[in-house]
Write a structure and sequence with these properties.
about 140 residues; mainly alpha
């Protein structure tokens, strides 16, 4: 994130002080932003840093919270992640077939890599979801506190 800030400052300074454009630098900020968000999604799930509607959750014990988490993972997380993997396959494959690059002259020739983050994120989310499901089951069975 610090690198993104530094590159953005450099782009702004180059544009307004030197009247120079920096397409590669601008696009690198976009790539880093996508990388941070797409890989941050499974990371947030692992560290319980995701958004939660907390109407009953805080009032429940560990087993009750585990039941809610388990239900959410099975009803929402897994199906959404599977749909993302399935629907992004052709999108990413077509980008790889043509080695899709930037539409800007002098841009980064790696849009196909950026698009690959979509199924990668979904697969990592499924892996972390499986770990969370296992944790919930252990808590429900009283084997983990």
């Amino acid at each position: 994130m610090l690198g993104m800030v530094g590159i953005t400052v450099a782009v702004v300074l180059m544009r307004y002080l030197l009247s120079q454009g920096a397409i590669v630098a601008q696009e690198s900020v976009m790539y880093l932003h996508a990388l941070a968000f797409m890989l941050g999604i499974p990371y947030a799930l692992k560290h319980d840093a995701h958004v939660r509607v907390d109407l009953l959750y805080a009032r429940l014990g560990k087993r009750g919270r585990a039941w809610i988490d388990l239900s959410g993972h099975l009803l929402f997380l897994v199906p959404v992640a599977v749909v993302i993997v399935l629907y992004s396959r052709n999108y990413v494959a077509s980008a790889w077939r043509v080695m899709e690059g930037s539409t800007e002259v002098g841009g980064i020739p790696g849009i196909f890599l950026l698009k690959t983050l979509i199924p990668v994120m979904a697969v990592l989310l499924l892996v972390q979801g499986a770990a969370e499901i296992a944790r919930c089951l252990l808590v429900i069975r009283g084997r983990r506190g």
